[in-house]
Amino acid sequence: MSDLLDEPEFLLLTGRTVYQGVEKEKGKFTPGYQEYVAICEIDPDDMERLNIKESSRIKVTTDFGEIVVRAVKSLRAPHAKTIFMPYGPWASIIMGAGTDGTGMPTLKGIPASLTSAPNEKILKVTELLEQFYHKYASYTR
Predict the structure, then answer these.
(1) Mean pLDDT across 122-130
(2) How far apart are alpha carbons 110 and 132 in whole angstroms?
(3) Buried residues in 26-55 as b, exposed as e (16+ CB within 10 A)
(4) Confidence at 139, pLDDT banded by 50, 70, 90
(5) What DSSP assignment string belongs to 100-127?
């Protein structure tokens, strides 16, 4: 897989999934929640073109941040150069907080790049919150 592109190659969409919703009800600190939410769904042709293997670790980068998640082959193909991440803490790191007066953050059509991240860790919810939202540590004590 190539290094980070000068120009973002993908459009990131975020949204709800059945699995994300079911696992959220079981608890956001469960392994199942991470399994179904710390992912990026990618078109199979894009995965092949970039030599991304199923379940490999990738870094998704936008103008708002970057996060390491697990690559998942999208079952909703074809949709070249469009990636999807379920709503959750991982997607929140890389989507815009600005609402442009609408009251809704940027959730769809976010320019994004993908890079291979085989040696990087997918953060657990608690680790992610501690790293990106420093206040979390005081709430758990």
Answers:
(1) 90
(2) 20
(3) eeeeeeebbebbbbbbbbeebbeebebeee
(4) low
(5) TTSS----S-EEEEEEE-TTS----HHH
Helix/strand/coil for 37: helix
End-to-end CA distance of the chain: 42
Q: Is the pLDDT of residue 138 over 70?
A: no
| pLDDT single digits (tens) 20-68 | 888 989 988 999 999 999 999 999 999 999 999 999 999 999 999 999 9
DSSP 107: -
Amino acid at 32: G
Helices (H), the chain: 18-26, 31-37, 44-50, 89-94, 125-132, 136-139
Separation CA 21–CA 81 (nearest Å)? 26
